[in-house]
């Protein structure tokens, strides 16, 4: 049998993973770390804390793939049977390791004498390689057999597992791996204010001559692009990735708000900080969400002043000076009102910039003329105000999240064009 | 072979699940829904979008267990091969269903003519039962064979899957299940303002004589209690569950904010609505998070007026009338300032009630006297103001989330005591 030397199978062990009490996030972490050294996860099995089930899954996985990582079932209780299942499949006894027992005793020292039941955590299938785990009581263990293949046992708690994968398993597997193996190198671009289909249409075949894959990753807030090039070394693919990024920047222009994985609120915060501007918010339907997002990053006090949550129409009038007649004539969700909100927030705060949102988040409150999802956004910088109306699909949460993102994006575009706002409306309606 | 009639296996299908790009949350949802009708998930396999791998996993699962649910791989592209893999294992051809094709065409009507490639989504392994999916293009399908067993195919998108499980799969399986099987019946109690260890200590052995299990579920916002009793029928266990709830209510008193799974913001919103009060907020470190949470439920305009995000100290002075000398003497994170914030929010809004928060969310800004996590909360109702200082452990996000929860909980306790606030401080420091 010729095996794919880059394939790895995972076996996740634990009743709590099957009952729905715990969602397994270890597998995704392992897959991403392995991918970076050119290995692929080809199958995963989730089994109960039962020796027969573990042994059965391990046998099948070794036959198919030859390299297996197990997670969980290494604790000190009777439920924890991964060690004995692996020892059985590899036909080896469990070996007591004095140095592991001493390490366990040192960990326990402060809590009092260690229970004898914990001795099992010092046992290793004979000949196994131990990966010390400074964060917990169960070490990682590698058991290799020329005929059967390789099995690596890892503890289930995510913080312990992640450290062991990063610090021990990846170096161990990388050393055994074929040096010529190709690995993925990645770049990310994040966009706002342009639909996925519009991105795809504009990009068209523009990258077809480059050895770079483009994946579209739609998020509730916007569309991200992930560029991937495969090589055995970063220097081999950096040029192609650079060219791809450059072309996408030409094609998508200001729709790209960052290269990398930063949040739009961080990008906007950095722009305000750089320009020495303080921002005030005026939020109706988003009711604090924009302020919350702008203050998620530490250091937000450099650029964030504060603002007004004007859910009730009385709040719009009293806190922001929105004209009562305008409210009655046009309704709270209208261009004249959102402009007055932005102006009011700026002038009443004394901040240099303000952003305002008013909309119908639903599920109630819509009409034929202004259905749920109708949202008006405005940005005031100095004496100029830019406003924009949008229709946002989705349920209440999605409307609020997208309205907040749209407001931050409008602010970003206004700041990009300089202190004024001329020309912004045309630009941002481009999709 | 005698099979465990309550066992079900899951097969999750998709390259993105193995690559780490997507974390599978469908399996946990299915497991919890099945548990409620007395079925257990005994194994789960995650395989690639490859017909051989799916067929291989399905054959093993049918042999072991006889009842299998697959998720994913039902889309219209060449990657989507679940239908053909299942048809192969059951030895049946794929059957074109005219009524499914017509439903697909209706879904597409607005977008233009449907591509011919989508015809595969109207195909079903011969004799299969279709579960219509109003939320997406791929219906659920059940294929049953007296010898091989049962396989249910579900689409991968979580919103579609959940609705199909709830509305079609659970009723379908419940009808086939053994009526005498014991199932879990559950009650939930949610608490705020009391530590898990304090709950455990107070509860002690108080429920030991009842056939009810209590699980403590610590959340970032507070501690939930889950009560479980097993029986073949709700009437069998309702009495024991009622008694357990009653005893816990006696033991934990006002720390319990709801029986069920409602959010604290909903509970507080309902209390305000009932009392005909409108609320204003004054938020510094939480910067909009309390307002956002209070407006998450539809209909929040019944009780939520709006408020003030006073991140900058100038905002506290200008928007709320906090006294500049008090700010300088005591600092922004202090009892006198939080009291002035709550009073200012109430009087300047004209709302009957106000809640205020000021704190150090970190990571910077802490001192020996006021470390990161120092938070002051206040509630004003009418002329009375109740204030409370807390130290919240954790990183920036956790401090902000817990400060918001603490503020809502203080408001709840003040409202519980009537319009005034006397005695509230003593009561809520009880942990």
Assigned CATH class of the largest domain in chain A: Alpha Beta
CATH architecture of the largest domain in chain A: 3-Layer(aba) Sandwich
Order of the strands making up the biggest sheet of chain A = 2-1-3-8-7-6
**What class would the helix/strand composition of chain A place it in?**
alpha/beta
Instruction: Tell me the Rg of chain A in angstroms.
Output: 28 Å
What do we call the CATH homologous superfamily of the largest domain in chain A?
MoaB/Mog-like domain
What's the structural domain tally of chain A?
3
Question: What attributes characterize this protein structure?
Answer:
homodimer; 39% helix; 15 helices; disordered C terminus; alpha/beta; Alpha-Beta Plaits; Molybdenum Cofactor Biosythetic Enzyme, Chain A; five-stranded mixed β-sheet; Maf protein; MoaB/Mog_dom (chains A, B); 431 residues
Description:
Chain A is α/β, with parallel strands linked by helices and about 425 residues long. Chain A has 3 domains: about 5-175, Molybdenum Cofactor Biosythetic Enzyme, Chain A; about 185-260, 2-Layer Sandwich (Alpha-Beta Plaits); about 265-430, Maf protein, CATH 3.90.950.20. The first copy, chain A, is built from 15 helices and 17 strands. In chain A, the strands form 4 sheets. Chain A has a 6-stranded mixed sheet, sandwiched between helices. A 5-stranded mixed sheet of chain A has the order 14-13-15-16-17, with helices on both faces. Chain A has a 4-stranded antiparallel sheet with strand order 10-11-9-12. In chain A, strand 16 and strand 17 (about 385-390) form a beta hairpin. The relative contact order of chain A is 0.08. At the A-B interface, helix 1, helix 2, strand 2, helix 3 and helix 10 of A face helix 1, helix 2, strand 2, helix 3 and helix 10 of B.
């Amino acid at each position: 049998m010729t095996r794919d030397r880059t394939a790895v199978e995972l076996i996740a062990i634990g009743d709590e993973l099957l009952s729905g009490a715990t969602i397994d996030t270890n597998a995704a972490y392992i897959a991403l770390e392995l991918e970076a050294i050119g290995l692929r996860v080809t199958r995963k099995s989730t089994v109960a804390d039962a020796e027969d089930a573990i042994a059965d899954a391990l046998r099948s996985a070794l036959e198919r793939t030859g390299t297996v990582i197990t997670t969980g079932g290494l604790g000190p209780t009777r439920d924890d049977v991964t060690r004995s299942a692996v020892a059985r499949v590899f036909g080896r006894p469990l070996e007591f390791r004095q140095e592991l027992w001493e390490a366990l005793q040192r960990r326990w020292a402060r809590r009092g004498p260690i229970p004898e039941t914990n001795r099992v955590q010092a046992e290793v299938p004979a000949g196994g390689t131990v990966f010390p785990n400074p964060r917990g009581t169960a070490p990682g263990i590698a058991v290799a057999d020329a005929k059967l293949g390789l099995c690596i046992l890892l503890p289930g708690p995510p913080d312990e597992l992640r450290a062991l994968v990063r610090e021990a398993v990846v170096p161990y597997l990388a050393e055994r791996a074929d040096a010529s193996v190709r690995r993925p190198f990645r770049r990310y671009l994040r966009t706002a204010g342009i639909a996925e289909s519009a991105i795809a249409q504009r990009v068209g075949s523009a990258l077809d001559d480059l050895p770079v894959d483009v994946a579209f990753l739609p998020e509730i807030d916007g569309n991200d692009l992930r560029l991937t090039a495969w090589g055995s070394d970063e220097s081999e693919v950096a040029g192609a990735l650079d060219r791809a990024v450059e072309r996408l920047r030409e094609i998508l222009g200001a729709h790209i708000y960052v290269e990398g994985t930063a949040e739009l609120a961080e990008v906007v915060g950095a722009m305000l900080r750089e320009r020495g501007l303080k921002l005030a918010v005026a939020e109706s339907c988003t009711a604090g969400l924009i302020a919350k997002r702008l203050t998620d990053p530490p250091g937000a006090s450099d650029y964030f002043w504060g603002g007004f949550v004007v859910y009730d129409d009385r709040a719009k009038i009293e806190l922001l000076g929105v004209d009562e007649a305008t409210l009655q004539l046009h309704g709270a969700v209208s261009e004249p009102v959102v402009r007055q909100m932005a102006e009011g927030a700026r002038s009443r705060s004394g901040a240099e910039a303000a952003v305002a949102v008013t909309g119908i988040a639903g599920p109630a409150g819509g009409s034929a003329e202004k259905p749920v999802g109708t949202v008006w956004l405005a940005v005031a910088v100095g004496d100029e105000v830019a406003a924009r109306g949008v229709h946002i699909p989705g349920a209440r949460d999605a409307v609020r999240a997208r309205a907040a993102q749209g407001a931050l994006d409008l602010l970003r575009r206004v700041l990009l064009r300089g202190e004024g706002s001329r020309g912004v409306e045309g630009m941002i309606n481009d999709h």
